[in-house]
């Protein structure tokens, strides 16, 4: 029979154990995830600061294109790290729960898995390689297989067919996502070699940001001069963009952080309009990729506002793309992501209150990402897709025939709502 003293000791032991477990749980909530600190109150679903408005009516979807013609032009929009919850949270913040982003009004929708060749994790390099080359590879690989063999990209195929190509990002111009469309390296950090590969591709527009470390490096200045010797107009300020000649390729090396800043110019909207003017002069057609990195950076950092601003910018680009497609009947628009970041959950919020969110991680997740399409050929992008399958469709749907082979097709008719 236990003595009172032994019973007291056992009870004290249990109480101490409970306190230790509780303390460990509290400490866990304060642990940084992938280098980013998540505060306890944020982890439990802090208000975002965006007041919810349920009074906004839901707009109709955009009409489907009723044409059997294959598109001559492709505009690919990539929200880096943009999952379904990023779209949902941004829509609630910008349009209200009943509103719709332009991206959400695309009439053809699907979703894509994003795992890499050997694990459920992927990064922007492997994710963009799947979109650009239609194959899965290892994280950090840029348009090479897991064994290091180069993969022909969508943009290289377009170049060979006489199409114009353009790459726009609000990140570094030689970063993983744009690089995957024209470079071939086993490491996304091989920036010098990536730049040389992209110069070989010679896109009509290679527009993004530079880095201070590159601007101050003599070898990189010599590399930039090789671009200029190849006919590129070097853009580093809004004035240089507006003053650039109508003919000839553009190399954007804008100051670090400038394109993503909504208070400065140029932004993705301005850059897209300028580049579309240039690319659309080619009678053989063009392919354009526009990426926002802000959705990824904001999600890595648990910065909801920054993520929303990234989707706001991409959605404005989607508006411009739709306007272009409506007046150029042979243009397909596809919007997607390379992966989801942050494991974002939208927790709640009532009319007149701030929405509440929670981030599960500071890294990438294996969550599927949206696929949204508009224009001729868009019907192929519905249903459940794999990212490599999506990349193959991007290369198969557009026509690579010579100029004059496509007259664009008929005007779209709205499908029943």
Care to describe what's here?
Helix 10 (238-243) links the parallel strand 8 (233-235) and strand 9 (250-254). It contains 14 helices and 17 strands. Helices cover 36% and strands 20% of the residues. It has 2 domains: 11-44; 49-396, Alkaline Phosphatase, subunit A (3-Layer(aba) Sandwich). The chain has helices spanning 4-30, 40-43, 84-94, 124-133, 154-160, 176-179, 191-201, 212-215, 218-229, 238-243, 268-279, 294-300, 304-327, 387-396, and strands spanning 32-33, 36-37, 47-51, 73-79, 108-113, 164-172, 205-209, 233-235, 250-254, 286-292, 331-336, 340-341, 344-348, 354-359, 364-365, 369-374, 383-386. The chain is α/β, with parallel strands linked by helices and 417 residues long. Mean pLDDT is 88; it is low at 25-43 and 404-417. It is globular and about 80 Å long.
* Extended strand count: 17
Shape, per Cα inertia axes: globular
Biggest beta-sheet profile:
10 strands, mixed
Give Rg in angstroms.
24 Å
Number of domains: 2
Q: Give the oligomeric state of the chains in this entry, treating copies of one chain as homo and distinct chains as hetero.
A: single chain
Query: How helix-rich are the residues, as a percent range?
Result: 25-40%
CATH architecture of the largest domain, by name, is: 3-Layer(aba) Sandwich
Tally of helical runs: 14
Mean pLDDT: 88
- CATH topology label of the largest domain: Alkaline Phosphatase, subunit A
CATH homologous group name of the largest domain: Alkaline Phosphatase, subunit A
- Strand coverage percent: 15-25%
Structural class: alpha/beta
